[in-house]
Design a protein that fits this description.
The chain is α/β, with parallel strands linked by helices and about 350 residues long. The strands form 2 sheets. It has a 4-stranded parallel beta sheet with strand order 4-1-5-6, sandwiched between helices. The protein has a two-stranded antiparallel sheet with strand order 2-3. β2 and β3 form a beta hairpin. α8 packs across α9 and α9 packs across α11. It is globular and about 105 Å long.
Length: about 350
């Protein structure tokens, strides 16, 4: 120590200065880390505040957009209401398209296949069941469900979807009435187990369906398998519906375009919503004019035809894209060509 030339006290002082410098550096590091954590914490609070503000702005923008698209007329309210009812069956329709056991359903459900492997190569199919009462009196009494089924089959033939969509029909009777000869009665226990979708064609059959729907159907969210024919009156555009009426109706209205507008804005197939007029009143308010009972019957038939064609278009629009390769290239329905 003497040879170095530094007295002990100076060495001690140097050591103390070194330790002090190290302690000062450690304290500065601790202060820096604390400051960094404080900054990060403050930044996190700022980020959360900004995120909350962004959520508020998005919610406010969504509310404003809903307010901007709020229905401003009874006709628009009716269209939105019909669309909301169609959305309830989308999940069940898509699931039914994706089933592989297409053959043993509907009218073919009674067949028993023994010693048969998986059914390979058969295209997907849906089975639709129409339920309705009777209209007319005496010899002119006809089944509403049979009439709707006839329109639906013609619409399937026109769009080449008859290989994918199959249908049957049955009738419901009013209390105390008797069924006409050869009438097919609606049996809920068989229909709901064999068919993919059950369609009520009038108010009476809608109430009957609601009373006999299985409890498991009511408990399943988003899996509704019954609907009303009126829900599909305005599925297509007016120009397309004009062509549909010209194809489906044997007795056309005097003005087809006006009849389409009346059917879209009125409820000929159901009772009116609260605050809305019935079919005849709404048609008169929308510019149409029902001169006689015969003209009103023609409009009622037009509404049924448009609803049947709209149902066909709606079901085809829900066809899964990944199943298109199972369709015959010469039997692809309209709307699935791409």
């Amino acid at each position: 120590m003497t040879l170095v030339g530094y007295p002990p006290v100076q060495l001690t002082t140097s050591r103390s200065a070194t330790v002090g410098a190290l302690r000062l550096a450690a304290a500065a590091c601790m202060v820096g880390c604390w400051w960094e954590r404080s900054c990060l914490k403050g930044k996190g609070k700022l980020d959360r505040l900004n995120c909350s503000r962004r959520r508020c702005r998005r919610a406010r923008a969504t509310a404003m957009s809903r307010f901007a698209t709020a229905p401003d007329s009874p006709g628009q309210l009716l269209r939105l209401w019909r669309k909301s009812k169609r959305d309830r069956i989308v999940t069940s329709v898509v699931d039914a398209w994706s089933r592989t056991d297409s053959l043993p359903r509907g009218e073919d459900a009674g067949f028993v296949f023994q010693n048969v492997g998986p059914l390979v190569g058969h295209p997907p199919a849906l089975w639709i069941y129409f339920v309705g009462g009777f209209c007319g009196t005496g010899a002119n009494e006809t089944s509403v469900a049979d009439t709707t089924r006839h329109f639906f089959e013609k619409a399937c033939d026109a769009t080449q979807s008859y290989t994918l969509l199959n249908c049957s029909s049955g009738c419901v009777l009013e209390p105390g009435s008797t069924a006409p000869p050869n009438a097919q009665l609606f049996e809920s226990n068989k229909v709901f187990s064999r068919y993919d979708l059950v369609v009520a064609c009038d108010k009476q059959s809608e109430q009957h369906l609601a009373a006999c729907v299985p409890k498991e159907e009511l408990m399943m969210q988003g899996q509704q398998r019954f609907c009303c024919l009126d829900d599909f009156v305005d599925t297509c555009g007016e120009k397309e519906q004009t062509q549909q009426l010209e194809c489906l109706l044997a007795t056309r209205p005097t003005d087809v375009a006006a009849a389409v507008t009346i059917c879209r804005t009125a409820r000929f197939l159901q009772t009116a919503l609260p605050g809305l007029q019935d079919g005849t009143a709404a048609s008169q308010q929308s510019g149409g004019r029902v001169d006689s009972m015969q003209e009103e019957d023609v409009l009622l038939e037009a509404a049924r035809a448009l609803a049947a064609a709209g149902l066909e278009r709606f079901l085809i629009s829900q066809f899964p894209v990944h199943l298109k390769d199972r369709l015959h290239p010469l039997l692809v329905p309209e709307g699935l060509e791409g």
